[in-house]
Amino acid sequence: MSKPRKSMALTTGVLATTTLVVTVCGVSGAGASQPDDAKGRNASVPVLPARFTQQKVQWTACGADVAPKAVPGAECGWVKVPVDYAAPDGKTVKLRVSRVQAKDHSHRLGSLLFNPGGPGAGGAADVVDGNWQAGKQARARYDLVGFDPRGIAGSGQIKCPDGVAQEPENPPRTEAEAKKAFADATKRAKACQRASGAVLAHMDSVSVARDLDVLRTVLGDAKLNYTGFSYGTFIGQQYMKLFPDKVGRMVLDGVVNPAADMQQVARRDVKTSDDAMRRYAQDLVARRDDRLGATAEEILRRLTTFAKKLAQKPLRGAGGEKFTDATLSTYLDTAVTAKENWKPLTKALVAAMNGDGAAFDRFDAGTAGGSGGENPTPQEERTEENESMSMPAVLCLDSPSAPKSPKEMLDTADAFAKQSPLFGRSYAWQMIDCATWPIATTGGAEPIKASGAAPVLLVSYTDDAHTPLENAQAVHRQLGHSSLLVRKGEGHGAYGSEHPSTCTDRAVDRYLVGGKLPGKTANCPR
Fold first, then answer.
1. DSSP helix/strand/coil, 87
2. Which of 130, 201, 203, 233 is most buried, taking the most CB atoms under 10 A from its CB?
3. For 335, phi and psi rounded to 5 degrees?
4. Gyration radius of the chain over CA positions
5. For 268, phi and psi rounded to 5 degrees?
6. How far apart are CA 402 and CA 417, in angstroms?
7. In terms of DSSP bridges, do strands 60-61 and 92-100 run parallel, antiparallel, or are they unpaired?
């Protein structure tokens, strides 16, 4: 039975506002980029050797290993950075970068760097294949630049040998199962450490933020102009703390709250998944679809009862695979975040609750997130494997507070399950990689201050199942010089999305191109 790829929601965080559209006019942002100078550098950040800061990118056509198809004018190259910034004369890693030059080159403002989130996702391909193009005005005035963060995609991938120890199919419930899960996770992590080399100990977001400053310098920009989505907003926050005087026009969309530790984020993610399930149930009632129940409360109660039954007696898929409560949780968590999946989800749930263990095979193949029956290419398989391992490689260095023993993990999972019978236990056990990670945490959970940085623009949907609006509101309070733009509706990444909002895109573009932020808060309608 094929399963949706598990989304380690610890990445992001884990809601409304009026629909008044405000005129974007107010606080001025930082000026656009001009040639770099050596003044105003953060004294706490040592100056790098010239071989890093003065290197030149050799731009060439992008190969099929970056993206099967490229938009006109897409170019690729490499930028070398230290593996360990405390020892810049030591080992290095090459970062893959891509760009599409400004369409209105005579009025070019500089480079606009992009990170799609993750952690674990590369950004070079998104610029090359046009998956991310920014808004129309920004696209005309900036070179759009993507990059694969260190250890990810084309930038010196971290590696994990196959077959060292398998992950448990379902969250452990006994002390014996928990001990085995811990032992296996420890073996996997140590095998990855041996195979990946020195870079694994330097996958932290502070190092990525320092890579951003090397990219800024090499590209010839005095200030960093940047758009980060989801986890990419956390990278931007780290940059603001390290290089406040180098912050240009920065858009943080789908905001991560840096003040929340891993368990706080996981608990909030459980809540956002429960909230999304409630919206799904309420939609069924509003459409008078009573196949799962007559009220939202009845629907959620029946699904909870079904999950408990699966925990005792799993169904069997077409190939004999078990369909357990954990399998159900994974599918629900994936499906409810995309409204276009709700109708096929209901069909699959009705069939499964009537004993059809293969119902979600058909659901997976027929939805927006499914494979449609096509087998992934070897490159896609490698990318997915790298993403799944890159996530803990980053998170376990960035965030403290994962449970540290089998008993503590069991107790934490029980507490999470009490909060959410549908999602709690699965979310808690996603922390096992960090509970057994062989490299000590280097980061911490603390509010972002960034004194001296230019004003930045925060963007959020009202209903975001990955990075809830409360995250953006918290960071807005932490950054007294920020502006918060809220787009009404459901989604993740409101600017330049596949479901475009003219109001949102124009507001962000006016900031990126003209330096004008909305008022302290602004809203865009659905």
1. coil
2. 233
3. -75, -40
4. 23
5. -70, -35
6. 17
7. unpaired
Who's near 96: CB < 8 A, 6+ residues apart?
66, 76, 77, 78, 122, 124, 147, 148, 153, 154, 155
SS3 assignment, position 358:
coil
pTM, whole model, 2 decimals?
0.87
Q: Which helix (H) or strand (E) holds 40?
A: none
Instruction: Round to whole Å and give the CA distance between 281 and 443.
Output: 39
Q: Which residue has the tokens 């959020």?
A: 460
| Tokens encoding 516 | 């004008």
The separation between the first and the last C-alpha atoms of the chain, rounded to the nearest angstrom, is 37
- What are phi and psi for residue 110, nearest 5 degrees? 135, -155
Q: How many Cβ atoms sit within 10 Å of the Cβ of residue 161? A: 10
d(Cα 310, Cα 32) in Å, to the nearest integer?
Answer: 57
- Measured over the CA atoms of residue 430, residue 432, residue 434 and residue 439, the dihedral's sign is negative
Nearest to 76 by CA among 148, 139, 140: 148
Q: What is the dihedral of CA 415, 417, 419, 424, to 10 degrees?
A: 110
152-186 pLDDT, tens per residue?
A: 999 988 988 887 877 888 899 999 999 999 999 99
Tokens representing residue 15 in the block: 């809601």
Type of residue found at 302: R
CB distance 253 to 462 below 8 Å: no
pLDDT digits (tens, 9 = 90+) for 350-405: 999 999 999 998 887 555 555 444 566 666 677 777 788 899 999 999 998 899 99
